[in-house]
Amino acid sequence: MFSEAFLHGLPKAELHVHIEGTVTPRQRWDLAKRNSIELPFSTFEELVAAHEYAAESPGEVLRRFLELYYANHVVFKTEQDYRDVMYEHLRRCAEGNIRYAEIYFGAQAHLALGVPLPVLMGGLRAGIEEGERDFGVAAGLILSINRGHSAESGFETVRSMVPYQDIVVGIGMGGLEPGNPPEKHKDAFAFARAEGWHVTCHCDVDQEDAVKHMWQCLDVLKVDRIDHGINALDDAALIDALNTRDIYLTPCPTWWPGSNDPYRLARIRQMYDAGLNITLNSDDPGMMTSGMLHELLPRVTRECAFTHEEIGHLMANAFKGAWLPDAQRAGYLRQLEAHLAADRTASS
Ligand SMILES: [Zn+2]
Fold it and tell me: Which domain holds residue 159?
């Protein structure tokens, strides 16, 4: 058994969440109104219903999800929009004791819709700075290269981030995985590493060639982390390599209507038992029923049968795998250890 109060008070970090995926149907509706953008829904209820879908295969789930995800982007127009969405996400983080977050953003899709880069980056920066000031939640950005775009486009997008190295802490990759193996973007990743960035890449759940893609992430992209990475369980040699090279994985025990969630939760437990450095993440809390990290944690703890100590270990992984200055990391780990120590005393 676990205690809700223990989970709530636990100092948390999250390494895998997309700013565009934090937008709730309500926010999307309100932003569209504010910017006089016509959405393909006549009522708010219709928009909500579009988030509830079932799909046949993992590839189809990802395709359906991304369709909806990119449709969200049209509501962003001004610096204020990006600032507000970031600020609101950090406010919700504070409610759940999420002290630190590394947050993905996908520049290519916003630029393609006509948003200038300084508008996008200026808004995200303002949201981060004001969120830290008002809620005490620190955040860094991760650029998400869209793997479906050309290698040249990916490379240029990474290069355009050089002036923003104070807020962009790492480079990653997401998007539609079939037909877009990690190695397609090897030059962008080599450039990112040469610039001193940490790097990560999505290896989504049960995609075609999932294991092969994970090996490419290690051997070709030379990643520090892998996002999701649940299919590591399919290859014992891969598990060994991930553990030996001290790679952190960011699986997302998330669910939405129609998703085969018990299967995903069971594999989170298996990853933990295989000794993998995993962290728990919400991915797209505005678009999934599982919601924010602190909202999904009770169910995950119960269904994966994690003890308080194991949850503490998972949260320590998140701080250890974070791209933070060492002194800041040590401060968070001390807060976490104090929370665990108080819990041990209370339950002894
Ligand atoms: Zn993701």
Answer: 4-347
338 CA → ligand 1 middle, Å? 31
Q: What CATH number should be reported for the domain holding residue 201? A: 3.20.20.140
CA–centroid distance, 235 to ligand 1, in Å, is 22
Question: 250 has which bridge partners?
Answer: 227
CA of 210 to the centre of ligand 1 (A): 15
What is the predicted pLDDT for the residue at 235? 97
CA distance 21 to 104: 9
pLDDT exceeds cutoff 90 at 279: yes
Per-chain mean pLDDT for the chain:
94
344 CA to middle of ligand 1, Å?
A: 34
Q: How many domains does the chain have?
A: 1
Q: Is 138 helix (H, G, I), strand (E, B) or coil?
A: strand
Contact present, 100 and 138 (Cβ < 8 Å): yes
Q: Ligand 1 centre from 265 Cα, in Å?
A: 16
* Average confidence (pLDDT) over 293-317: 97
Q: Please report which residue ranges of the chain form alpha helices under DSSP H.
A: 4-9, 25-34, 44-50, 58-72, 79-95, 107-112, 117-135, 151-159, 186-194, 210-216, 236-244, 261-273, 293-303, 308-321, 326-347
Q: Is 199 exposed, middle or buried, given 0-12, 13-18 or 19+ CB atoms closer than 10 A? A: buried
- Cα of 49 from ligand 1 centre, angstroms: 22
Distance 208 CA to ligand 1 centre (A): 17
CA of 142 to the centre of ligand 1 (A): 11
Centre of ligand 1 from the C-alpha of residue 95, in Å: 22
